[in-house]
Design a protein that fits this description.
- The protein is of the alpha/beta class.
- It folds into two domains: 96 residues, Resolvase, N-terminal catalytic domain (Rossmann fold, 3-Layer(aba) Sandwich), CATH 3.40.50; 93 residues, no CATH class.
- Helices cover 54% and strands 11% of the residues.
- It has a five-stranded mixed beta sheet with strand order 2-1-3-4-5, sandwiched between helices.
- It is elongated and about 55 Å long.
- It starts with a strand and ends with a helix.
- 29% of the residues are buried.
Length: 208
């Protein structure tokens, strides 16, 4: 049996298009969630995982509707495979109910490991860079200790300017509002202020 899962990140977004696509794909049941990408609580997904049986297929419209991050997505996919449940994404080349699809998904597992290593490396670089600028890497006021490394990585990626805000949030497995909150905690200039601060930093470096 095909079982669908639909998720949006805010109450302002609409689940209708996802539900229509899942029904057209032959889903007899559809579970739903309204949850930020980084939020762990997803009652709809929890209920779905408890309802699937061997031989079923979990169907989603896009991979980012299921996992909070690439590594979380791979963990969920492996859990489904252990239960003999397939994972089908309507808009991505993923169908773990077939041997070829399982082989393709192994590439995602490799990318997830690569993602973890990149984040760890950039976190380390960010902390070292902050120390060189005279900043301390202690816990920002009001920020949970477990989020410290993610906040540091967010600062590094944002200051690099190579990724968009959406891409940074997706890579770190957080939503955009959380990313901005982390940047504010790290006293990172945002938007036009970031450009002005960067120019001042470059000028000071040349003067020195």
């Amino acid at each position: 049996m095909r079982i669908g899962y639909a998720r949006v990140s805010t109450n302002d977004q609409n689940l209708t298009s996802q539900i229509d696509a899942l029904q057209a794909a032959g889903c007899h049941k559809i579970f739903q969630d309204v949850a930020c990408g980084a939020r762990a609580e997803r009652p709809g997904l929890d209920n779905l995982l408890g309802a699937v049986r061997p031989g079923d297929a979990l169907v989603i419209c896009k991979l980012d509707r299921l996992g909070r991050s690439l590594s979380h997505l791979v963990t969920l996919a492996n859990k489904l495979l252990e239960q003999d449940v397939g994972l089908v994404s309507l808009n991505d080349p993923v169908d773990t109910s077939t041997p070829q699809g399982r082989l393709s998904f192994n590439l995602f597992a490799a990318l997830a490991e690569f993602e973890r290593e990149i984040i760890k490396e950039r976190t380390r670089i960010g902390l070292n860079s902050a120390r060189l600028r005279g900043r301390r890497g202690g816990r920002p006021k009001g920020l949970p200790q477990k989020a410290l490394k993610i906040a540091c990585a967010a600062e590094t990626l944002y200051r690099e300017g190579k990724l968009t805000v959406d891409e940074i949030a997706s890579q770190l497995g957080i939503c955009k509002s959380t990313l901005y909150s982390y940047l504010r905690h790290r006293n990172v200039p945002i938007g036009s202020q970031a450009g002005e601060a960067s120019n001042r930093y470059v000028q000071q470096s040349h003067t020195a």
